[in-house]
Amino acid sequence: MICIRKTVFSILSNFSRCQRPAIMNEQLIIKNFGPIKEAAVNFKKVTVFIGPTGGGKSTLAKLVSIFRDVDFYISEYGPLDLLQFYGIESYFEKNSEIKFNRDRYGLKLKRNSVTYDKVTRQIINSYTKLTTKAFNERSKERVPSLVDSIHSAAKQAGLDNSGVDDIMNNIYPIVEQVIQDTSREMMKIIFSKMFLYTHPAYIPSERMFVSALNNSWAGLMRDDIGLPQSLLAFVNNFSQFRSSIGKLELPMFNVNYIHKDGEDLIEIKGSEKKLSLHETASGIQATAPLLVLIEYLSRNVEEVQSFIVEEPELNLYPVAQHDFIKWLVQKCCLGNNDLTITTHSPYILASCNLLMEAYKVWQQRPELEMEIDKIVPRASWINPDNFAAYYVDKEVVSIKDDRTNLIGGNHLDDVSGSISDAFRKLLRLKKQRDNA
């Protein structure tokens, strides 16, 4: 059985070593799906969605996470499995239409089916036929010799023909299962090079519950009380990986995270005192598990990682939001990795603009790199060509200014503008009263 697996992996070795281009052209087109009435989103290395609650930001983030997940393409349950995982299977309407394109590959999703465009179908079919043919040829060479070896061993053991038949009847189902497993691995490799990263890291806004419930998660998962599956997956990953981190600096809070003896602790710098995570400020509780998980995943340089983070600003003061965005870009955008954010905070947009402006100044004045780095660390600069930002409220509109290649000032000031407008109206009312 090991030989069969090695055969498949040797057949696919050249294909599996293919490198993705540095920048992928990835587009999601939606009509009438959940809160989204119409959308055309071009994803970049860093993509940000901002807008009111219920406008559809999370829907976009969940859909791209689904399309980047290998399970979407090879699950025996089809697309419905991941749609249920993210709780959006009920969003389909009769006229819903979702298309996903990545470079020259494309697909269309309906309620219970996935169809690929002509080019994609041809490529999938050609690789499938090629690998199946090679696999069958290798199997013809090796399986008979395996059978002969079994017969020979049985004869030496003094078994009669019925004993040999019993052995073979037990072995054939195992061989068939191995063939199915290797076929699944073959398709996984093919699709992973066409559409996706193996499993995107989706970090939900409900992560605040992780520290609040502390060590009660095992019982909650066991009792199946209906928590979002994406939250349970996040908790499971955090619980699994935190011991590998051990200690992690959280620079935006000037503290260290420590995992010791099954406990999540926060060490205040300059003090010997350590607090349990659930005893700390809400911003630390909401952020520390996310930081630990991303730190662990970002160390894996063998696989391309996709990070999708909901509301990074949770419970954070604006200055901490800015420091957090710098950290996210530095950790999540290494190599060909990418980062998608949903947010309600204009401070997140302002921080992204600053990181892009640092890159632009460096392009114009490369001799000032060291001075720029002192203001904005080099590792967190964003190339504006690799950045996209959208306002989402049932429909989706790009908020990047074509002239500056930054986020437009109107969108940064929307909230403060409406507050100022209301303030001016109150002042006018007061003035009218004073003049009366």
Structural description of this entry:
Pfam families: AAA_15. This is Endonuclease GajA/Old nuclease/RecF-like AAA domain-containing protein. Residues 26-348 form the Endonuclease GajA/Old nuclease/RecF-like AAA domain. It comes from Hymenobacter oligotrophus. With 436 residues, the chain is α/β, with parallel strands linked by helices. Among the domains are: 2-15 and 120-194, no CATH class; 205-302, no CATH class. The chain contains 16 helices and 15 strands. The protein has helices spanning 2-11, 13-16, 57-67, 70-74, 80-85, 118-156, 161-194, 209-213, 217-223, 229-245, 282-298, 318-332, 346-364, 369-375, 409-412, 414-435, and strands at residues 26-33, 36-43, 46-50, 92-102, 105-110, 113-116, 201-203, 247-250, 255-260, 263-268, 274-276, 306-310, 338-343, 387-393, 395-398. The strands form three sheets. A six-stranded mixed sheet has the order 7-12-13-3-14-15, with helices on both faces. Strands 2-1-4-5-6 form a five-stranded antiparallel sheet. A four-stranded antiparallel sheet has the order 8-9-10-11. β12 (306-310), α12 (318-332) and β13 (338-343) form a beta-alpha-beta unit. It is globular. It starts with a helix and ends with a helix. Mean pLDDT is 81; it is low at 1-22.
